[in-house]
Amino acid sequence: MSGMSLLTPTATATVIATGTSDPAHLDFTAIDCLPRLRGSEFELVVGREAAADATTAPYPAVLFVPGAYHGAWCYAHYLRYFAQREIDCFAIDLPGHGALAGAPDFATMGIEDLGQCVRRACDVLDRPVVLVGHSMGAVPAMLAARHRRVQGLVLLAPSPPGNLAGARALPAVPLQGLVPPPNADEVRSRFVGADEGCDVSAVAARLSAESPRVLNDRYLLRVPVHADSVTCPGICFEAELDDPARHPAGQDESIARFLGLAYQCLPGQPHSMMYGARWQASAEAIFEWYARQFGAPSAAAEAASSVPLAVPASTSSSLP
Predict the structure, then answer these.
(1) Residue range 124-180, pLDDT digits in tens
(2) Side-chain half-sphere exposure of 236, counting CA atoms within 13 A
(3) Domain-by-domain residue ranges, the chain?
(4) What is the DSSP letter of 160?
(5) What is the C-alpha to C-alpha distance for residues 320 and 118, in angstroms, rounded to an integer?
(6) DSSP letter assigned to residue 178
(7) Sheet containing 316-318, strands listed edge to edge, beginning at the edge strand earlier in sequence
(8) Which of 64, 93, 225, 248 is 20 to 30 Å from 39 by CA-CA measure?
(9) What is the spatial distance between Cα 190 and Cα 181, in angstroms, rounded to a whole number?
């Protein structure tokens, strides 16, 4: 696709609007008002798209890839953050996730299939892009990093490639149907890093059942990534409060070293740093890396609440 006019309901920029400049960190409702673009097997949520001709856009777009059980909704705060800094940004709903929960044949899909979806999304955007992958979603992002349009790779609390020396395997899940998402207690402790009294119903309500093949691809380390195929700059962010059973000490740093990426441990961050109580600190870390690599719009320095916000109509378009 040549250009971005088909990817928004109008030619003007759109950003997420909320009632305050710092929304409750477990409130994702703002994302429900954003335009959604249908691909053959995926959907893109548009946080901002302003370039009339995306092929000449001065800065790469950011494409956020969610992890297991999660959809594009989990990046609601990041979309607002980057849109306010005049950086075009999108989040993908992969098959079986988010608005695409219950997709046909999802139970038979694996991480390689999700990587193909991310590559096709890069084809559709047809512009320079930085991939940001979280947890399991980091592996499809790694697989798609060889795409000609990918200019940067950001990994958030990533699952390891299957060929990472010393990576920790986990017990396999049964293959009988989709795997239900974690319960509220696990969401609270593992994803949010919150106390017992924290109400995580807003998160639990949006989580989707996961493909057992996707989970076993990760747990049994079945998906290798060829390090020499990742030639773009990148960074791996470790969440300090992550579950040591899934992210043992040194593993995230080893992933960074294996792929030739920079590494940074973010203090006080839970596994799902994009909607933890200190989500803005993690967004700032990503933005700072982005600005060092690619520069940033002049408005970025004075973004925050001074940027006018507009609520786009709830819109869905089909991608060619």
Answers:
(1) 999 999 999 999 999 999 999 999 999 999 999 999 999 999 999 999 999 989 999
(2) 25
(3) 5-313
(4) P
(5) 16
(6) P
(7) 262-266, 234-239, 150-156, 129-134, 61-65, 89-93, 43-48, 36-38, 316-318
(8) 225
(9) 12
Single pTM value for the model: 0.88
Residues 6+ apart with CB under 8 A from 5: 11, 52
Q: Is 233 exposed, middle or buried (0-12, 13-18, 19+ CB in 10 A)?
A: middle
Asked if 273 and 241 count as a contact pair (C-beta separation under 8 A), the reply is no
CB 57 within 8 A of CB 9: no
**Residue that has been written with the tokens 């819109």 in this structure:** 315
Q: What CA–CA distance (Å, rounded) separates 50 from 276?
A: 29
- Measured between alpha carbons, how far is residue 149 from residues 133, 152, 231, 260 in Å? 16, 9, 12, 19
pLDDT at 104: 84
- pLDDT tens, position by position, 29-85: 999 999 999 988 999 999 998 865 666 778 999 999 999 999 999 999 999 999 999
CA distance 80 to 142: 24
As to burial, measured by CB atoms within 10 angstroms (0-12 exposed, 13-18 middle, 19+ buried), residue 17 is: middle
Strands, E, within 209-310: which ranges? 234-239, 262-266
Q: Can you give the length of the chain in residues?
A: 320
pLDDT at 95: 95
314: left (phi over 0), alpha (psi -120 to 50) or beta: beta
Residues in Cβ contact with 176 at an 8 Å cutoff, skipping those fewer than 6 apart: 212
Single-letter amino acid, residue 273? M
What contacts 121, CB < 8 A, 6 or more positions away? 39, 42, 44, 63, 90, 92
What type of residue is 77? H
